[in-house]
Amino acid sequence: MEALGLHVLMEFHKCPFEILNNLKALELTMNDAAKASKATIIKSVFHQFSPQGVTGVIVVAESHIAIHTWPEHGYAAVDFFTCNMDMDYKKAYYLLVHNLKSKVYTYRSIKRGNLQYKDVGYELSKN
Amino acid sequence: MEALGLHVLMEFHKCPFEILNNLKALELTMNDAAKASKATIIKSVFHQFSPQGVTGVIVVAESHIAIHTWPEHGYAAVDFFTCNMDMDYKKAYYLLVHNLKSKVYTYRSIKRGNLQYKDVGYELSKN
Questions:
Q1: Residue at B12 is within a domain
Q2: Which of B31, B47, B86, B114 has the fewest CB atoms lying closer than 10 Å?
Q3: Catalytic annotation present for A102
Q4: A51 touches chain B (CB under 8 A)
Q5: pTM to 2 decimals?
Q6: For A29-39, how does the pLDDT look when each residue is reduced to its tens digit (9 = 90+)?
Q7: CATH number of the domain that B10 lies in?
């Protein structure tokens, strides 16, 4: 299958509340993860929610890297979207497992922009 | 299944080159899509690539909305990540179909943060 992008959805459970609610530490960790994967950082935007939770997005030359945390559930969702199939997202993944101190973690990767659809010429889905 | 977030991955094929390479129009369309879905916009970051292509991320109170375009392939990838299951992403989807003038489009939605995993207590995936 010829695809233009790879979207890696990572799930980190059983992380300490304090880590998932610390904007500055999360921004540093996510930037380190971006660098570990050899992504080229363009801009980093992080936001602290009240009473808890952090959202952060790093726009990279290869697409984007995002994190959303639910400290009250010990859960963080991370996604890596890249147009560079050689980007080393596994290095970023294990760096995140370590820094988020996650005890239960997983990921799945989804190909985006499957060019076999481009000539289908009708709507693939309406609902 | 109890999930904390919903991640909707949208694919838009057969879009005109000019539309997918127009940063200002795409930023307007994506902000309109965010409003149509009733998301609360926090920050919008868009970037033009050379020789073509646009990446844009809107950080919203409900998580994030992102677009990456490949004008040379007539393709745009959009994702809506929301922690509000009532967010009306379908309104945003049809607004995007219309504004991007896509002739072949589809989406899939993926639940994120499945709390049934939180007590598994072991690593779910290593590869």
A1: yes
A2: B86
A3: no
A4: no
A5: 0.90
A6: 999 999 999 99
A7: 3.60.90.10
User: Which of B:7-46 have CB within 8 Å of A?
Assistant: 7, 9, 11, 13-14, 42-43, 45
Chain A CA closest to residue B44: A45
pLDDT for A122: 44
| Pair A7, A92: CB distance under 8 Å | no
Q: What is the pLDDT of residues A44-72, one digit of tens each?
A: 999 999 999 999 999 999 899 999 999 99
Of B96, B83, B95, B107, nearest to B9 by C-alpha is B107
Domain tally, chain B: 1
Instruction: To the nearest 10°, report the CA torsion of B87, B90, B93, B97.
Output: -160
- Spell out the residues 6+ positions from residue B44 whose beta carbon is closer than 8 angstroms to its own: B27, B30, B31, B56, B57, B58, B59
Does residue A72 form part of some domain? yes
Counting as low any pLDDT under 70, the low residues of chain B are 1, 117-127
Q: Taking CB atoms and an 8 Å cutoff, what residues of chain B touch A5?
A: 68, 77
**Cα distance from B62 to chain A (closest Cα, Å)?**
9
Closest CA to B33 of B104, B110, B76, B90: B90
